[in-house]
Fold these 4 entries.
Entry 1:
Amino acid sequence: MQDRRILHASHLFASLILLAGTSLAATNPYESNVIVWGNQKVLTRPVVAVSAGFMNSTALQDDGTVVQWGNNWNDENITPPDLDSIAMVSSGSYHVLGLKKNGTVVAWGANGNGQCDVPKSGGAAKSIAAGSYTSLALREDGSIVVWGDTAQGQGRIPANMGKIVQVAAGVYHVLALNSDGKVFAWGDNPNGQTSVPAGLGKVKAISAGRLHSMALLENGKVVTWGDDYSRRSDPNPAAKDITDTLSSVQAIAAGYGHCLALRTNGTVVAWGGTPQGQTVIPAGLNHVVGIAGGHDHSIAVKDDGAVVAWGWNAWGQATIPAGVNDAKAVAAGFTHLAVLRIDGSVKAWGYSGATNTPILPPKSLKKATQIVAGENFTAALQEDGDVVVWGDTNQAVLTMPTPRGTVKSIAGSRNSVAAILKDGSIVRWVPDWSGSDGLTTASGASTETWKGLALGFESPFALRANGALVAWPDSLIPPSSSVFASVAGGPAHIVALQANGSVVTWGDTMLLHVPTGLGKCRSVAAGQLHSMALLENGTVAAWGYNRQNQTFVPMGLSKVKSIFAGGWTSAAILEDGIVAGIDRERRNGISSIRSVGGHFVEVRDLSGRMIWSGTATWDGKVWSVPSMPRGTWILRAKTESGVEAQIVSLL
């Protein structure tokens, strides 16, 4: 049997890390020929650690990279650019901590209480814990650092605790375990969650929930205190405490109101909390090596690096974004992602931002040949020529109101779908989820042979066989347009590939900065506010707004066959093989911009080094910085004065 020893860094929403002695199966459960970046991602490597937040989930892959999914209200799923070499992750309500292998702590997500303002001094950390709005680090010297929300006394660290080996954070309370197996607790205590049971000792792991605390003893027993409901498998006050009979436990994890225990036989036991399914263990779940509890969902890691999740799934936090090794195409909305597989099936993750419900393909979907996505819906063209649309309100499934079997190809945008019919006509529909057929006919028809279709500015753009571009209305095409090979569109811009391999764009002025010296390209793609190009050498370039890292192309990405952009997401499918060998080396990119006294602007790189400073002019729409270096970088941020700055810089 494989070694399943686990080290737990418990906190409000539990995380885990496998010890060096833990072995994983040699196979990779997430072999993938598609890599995705931006606000949507997929797993491509075996997982060694997981962490669960309020409505999101985080996985640490065996190469030190992080993949996140679920709710993203506060950018808690937007990892810092080129985040790598991570050894541990820990989730609060809306923020995430990462511990790098060199002891550096990084944080991202909500920062209303300063929970992401990691102290710059104090030495390397060996463990981390995230509370609801609080962050903790256990340093190598055994000292504890607390930052963020400390209004409930979380920062009042007791003296004389001895050598601390583990910390855990609840919503408003903190636990610490010393090398002698003794537990200390402080912070908010309305339900007795910091009232450590008298005589408690020989503890080897701790975990903290909202109003309860857990301790794992050296003999494999579990002790809990605090909120009574979190201690029982039955809400009846007369019910027996489940921990009375629980034994042979090797790891524990406290969710918001529920408890998880991993037994030495690789099975999981769960109890407590409100009934959202977080304690209903999936049938046949075994070979588990790690567990984590979120607000109302639970996660487990198996010994082959696969992840299993269950419970509340309103924002897709319990739907694992597993990479696929037979991807044919990718479609991304604002908060969801779909992958078309070679066999015609569709795999999907994420949720509708309008209804907070997962956007998953209907079981009735037949073999698909093409997929597109809008803000909160996905559309698939079936092999039989029918188009099916799903998503948004109550997961409605709609069929396009055209004669069945007449659609040849489709294109999607934020709020509409367009199609080339087999007779050469072009139509556009706007999803109407309350109507009888759910769709209303728009405009545009021409009986010709077309070789491309896109939706830009929510209007159809079609490419004739001779490379001429047609749009409805035709005023959307610049007078200087020439012969094109392909075209892609977003709500506010068009990016087109000319027959000579060069790229042109038009529309929103802040999206038109095609990278200098781009070179000859094979294809283009357009997202909500960004563009992509696939170069002849198989590499990828991306530009435009980068608020969610959608233009931070992974370093070393090459041998790309096709590219896709949608919402705030970018994706690439490789020519052959699986995602491997991506160079994670940190590149010199823009990290921050701030306004210092009026319109004097500073731009700094990832290390904090000053890249450029000078006076910027604001005309009410765009920052003008004439003395700044020319080039390809576009940074979108807010200055301290609250004005949104958009600056181009070449590093």
Entry 2:
Amino acid sequence: MTWTNMTQTAAGQVAGFVDFDWGQQVCHRAGLCQSMNIPDTAIFATMYKHAGDWDLAWDPDIHFVRSNDLFKTISKTIQCGNQFETIGREVRSRESHRKMVANQAA
């Protein structure tokens, strides 16, 4: 795979990215990505659509998305998605991750 400017590839669908992870990171067993239809080019990301949208620490204009083709298209969008992130091999809400860490520390 070669370097790709994904905001340019997105053709106006994405102004910028807050965070991302390759889709392959959520696959922890051989063949799992294939069975879940997650290609090598899949990306999970938190992004904002318009320049200037991201202006708060917790911003409802940040969306959690999945793209299978380096953002030529966006296959899934969860509005107010900055509450989600990929952690290890899972997609979790930030709140569930905070609770898990707090329980492990107790």
Entry 3:
Amino acid sequence: MMTKQIDKPERKEIESVCTYCGVGCDITGVVENNKIVKIYAQKDGVVSEGKLCIKGKYGYDFVDAKDRIREPRIRKTFLDKNPHIKDKFQDKLSCFDDDFMTGDVETATGIAAMKLAEIKQKYGGESFCAIGGARTSCESAYSFQKFCRQTMGSPHVDNCARVCHSPSLKGMKTTIGEGAATNPYNDIYETEFMVVIGSNTMEAHPIIANRIVSMARTHNNLAVIDVRETKLAKLAKYNCIIPFEANMLILNMMAYVIIDEELYDKSFIGNRTKDFDVYKESILNDPYANPAFLSKIEGYEYLAKMVSNIAREYAVKKSMIFWGLGITEHLDGSYAVMAMTNLALMTGNIGKTGAGLMPLRGQNNVQGACDMGCLPYYLPDYQNTPSGLMTPQLVEAMNEGQIKALLNMGEDIMHIHPNIEKIDKAMDNLEFCMVQELFMTEVTKKADIIIGVKSAYEKTGVYVNAMRRLHLSQPLVESDLPDDWEVLTQMAQKLGDGDNFHFKSSEDVWNEVRVEAPRRFSGAAYYRLERHRKRGMQWPIYHEDTPILHLLDFRTDDGLGKFVYKQYDLRGQIEEILENKFYDDSPNGFYLTTGRTLPHYNNAAQTKRTKSLYDKHSEDTLFAAIEDEGKFGDKVILKSEYGETEALNVVYTKKVKPKTLFCTFHHAKSRINAVFGDESDALILTARFKSVKVDVIPVGDEVACG
């Protein structure tokens, strides 16, 4: 009797780095026949500690999703408007669907290069802008800003740090000379007290939260400061729920207590800082800095004592501060970051193990994109340069007809940015838009050319996480799609810039980065990153890496930390409470904040392709206070002076204060960002996503008109 031999699938285990948030977990992909069948973390993973969140563990179905962009798409209406381009490339194009033609990548980049050359010749290089880079590798981000600046001759390059942690960079660089996390994650195990402010850490950065949770359970040493009760607050010694737009108020109050009670570190201040005496007098004479002011704020009176106790513990213990977008996405985001560095400087809680400052970065490579120079005012390595326009200014310039062309690389500005009605009109005013993406996101609806590119799980490249740790990814699966830097190289060569774009591999690009950004990356050769793939290396990297910054000096010109004072501006909810105008039975005048939920990441382009993740959160949900349950029912529309959402289901909870609201923003169909306008950080134009005043309109089953 003959038996039929069945071939077993080829099975590989490949180490790489997670594609989602800025935690940057080490992962191992289990691959069979060029398909990912499992992702897990090894127990000795330095970042992951052997654990992954549900996105990292299960969110890999996007890689071979049926709706991946696998062939370039050229919009038919664009070709009709540019008949000379259509005539030149007609023979290389075929019909894709009712809206698009398709061809190979060479054809698509040829069409793009021809159009960009015409725009540059007719309007000048500064009519071009580039937005994106934080979702791809450092090699592609570097190529992106280089293409913008050198090939097109435009200073207008920006990335999604504009809507997240640009204020962290601004605030920290102003005071201590470096805009990045000062310590590694594992210093959490060495700290004596933790302050988490404006961060839903358990859902947005779960693997960092694991460490915080472990310490909080053991030592009861956690303060959580937020406008609502987050999951992490359950473990907090101090669950400090504050009014909207009160970050500067609370942080200055902490400084007041520390100064008034002389809990500051005189030796550290004298040896390592400047301008303390002026700052000290400003705080002591600040009309809002005394915590007693909080006793006047109805519904928040208990904060006067709690904030003082938090300040005392922070000052006398080895402490760390963690923050998220609940700090930065405000009118005073940059100043609030300076207020936190002031606290660290006056108490000596910086420049040593177990004490420091940690902005919890969002995207998997937003730190790296900024390091690579994807900002209008910095070249790679944060070298100064005459500034181009920031994204909100670029939108204005599009509407005014000054910006004619946009290259977008993996940043869905039609979904994740504010004032989407305004952006919609701005995009319609462009002569040319090209998008490099994985899926047909909202921004692709405005694109003339769309080129599908490799995902993080299909390429080699460097990613920098929230603690400055470099990981060198390697492909889990093979793909014949181009990498972002390859698309850019093709276009640059066709635009006559081949001498600057001579790259044949991602390592070629990275070796140029090491030359152009030597202060951070000169010693970070591929072979070293390969050797330490699971551990990673923290910049600056010379012969060895640098886990802790500012051990001896700050990275300022004179090596000293600088105190910068900013008074809290009375406004919004607090002002209304003081004037007895806030608490009423009206469905109008609610304060809304937004944020993530655990199963999804930002615009959910990747996570919603995994059914188990999508089923956990298939639509955005609005959370309102139990006390407001009788005011507007179970389905509502939110409306501001800028626009309105679609109909949202409401969940009533004790974790939200009266007349305040929280909503997720993962699904474009909800149009959450239509209610946010142009209000932004005073220094760096990061949108005020964490506070907008809205009216709540009850609806039945009807849908908002949008």
Entry 4:
Amino acid sequence: MCRCTQVYSESTMRTKEPSFRITRSITFRGKKIPIAAECSACADAEFILKIDKRATYHEPDSKTYVVLLKRQFEVHPKLAHPPKLKS
């Protein structure tokens, strides 16, 4: 789930190039499992995993969770960081 606005001005950007950064993780049986990430260039773009534990229980897998977070992030640069047009 991406909570972000469509276009950012230079004053709200933290870095020039958007990159994927894991911000929260849990430890499960000694393994770090990422559950949230953010865009390094945006102040409010956060990507959170929404998993319903009641539907089916399975042991969390960090590789799968990273892939799910990166899928959310891949959509974000197209919406919030459009390429600058050369005039």
